[in-house]
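Hey team,

Filing this mostly as a record. A colleague (T.K.) asked me to run one chain through the structure pipeline before their review meeting, and I want the input and output archived in the tracker in case anyone asks later how it was produced. No errors, nothing strange. Just documentation.

Input sequence:
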Amino acid sequence: MSVVHSQIKESSISQPAEWFALRETAQELAAGLPFPDKQDEAWRFIDLSPLKKIEFQTDLAPSALTIKDIARWSVPEACARLVFVDGVYMPALSQPNDSVLSLKSAFKHYGLIAQHLGRYAPMQDDIFAAQNTSLWRDGAFVFFTKSEARPVHLLFVMTQKQLVAYPRVLIVTANGVQGSVIEDYVAADEQVYFSNCVTEVVLQERALLAHTKIQREAKSAFHINNCAVQLASGSAYKSQTISLGARLSRQNLKVTQDGEGAHAELDGLALIGGRQTADTHTQMDHAKPYGTSTQLHKCIVDGAAHAVFNGIVHVREGAQLTNSAQSSRNLLLSDKAHVDTKPQLEIFADDVKCAHGATVGQLDADELFYLKSRGLDETTARKLLTYAFAAEIIDKIPVDSLVQSLRHTVFEQTQNAAAL
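Output structure:
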């Protein structure tokens, strides 16, 4: 089935009338939107033609995985876990609770879900968000009604060749509560497949959410994720987005400060090699006064890989006393590695404090010499410096087991860093 011309299969969908109407609207939008190419400013750095050429399939029966099969991705600290295999919710592998449910099983929350589902994802101008909204088979619903120190783990596992899945996530908080969510995309095997994901996050007044998103798909896969966040007055959103896998990945993150005094911390790390492409676009929209935000995005690029960062801080008219800082820092580990970085400020208020900057470079020769003079070999010295560069992002993740796992991954993926 073509990625571009997928249709709703009513027999596979169980939903209230409001959801079906949303799907129909999304399908109409998807049918009328062009497939992006390099003529589009937002996609000019990457080539999507390989994605368009593959005939992906949907509505396949999910693979039969066991608890043992998913143990390698477990998060012991989690208070609840939802597992989706090939886009389908797997109750036998999950540990839901009253506030962490699959979208289709959250009957008592239908009113709240209908209020927010599909309201923030950019369907009108993004064909991938529109397709996800018309075709998702099930999704994750997280509703924090009281503060929870332990994280919620949402695990999306892909297993089948040339399958397209449409993971869907909706996270809502009540006033004044704190919560943590891990959104985790993994592959059981090295396959060519496509994950087309949409996440919507709604923070009510004075709420705090720590949101960790990890993309560690198969190296030959495709991954496109749209995440839209709404912040009410006094709320705070802290995000870490880690991109490790996929032949081609795209992260679109839009955060809208919809109330006074909201705060956002948007941190990202792309660690890629070979011929991978990792493209990250962020938009921090300060729509109200007294907002604060920080952005730090790092790319570690080896082989002939290509990383892209395009970050926009938009301060609307009337959003006075906004304080925002944005930084893009990039490390090239080979002569063929390539980075395009474009931090931007769009300011329409006169009493603000905003800054941005970008750097691109290689490992510091003096630091390498120092480590080698202390007895380390070239490869170990490079790996240590590379991890030190990544640690600023990884160490912010508020889950110890995940930090340890990602540390190991960084060391593994920089095995060839000495080949300069």
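Quick notes for T.K.: The CA atoms of residues 143 and 181 lie 11 Å apart. The chain has a mean pLDDT of 91.
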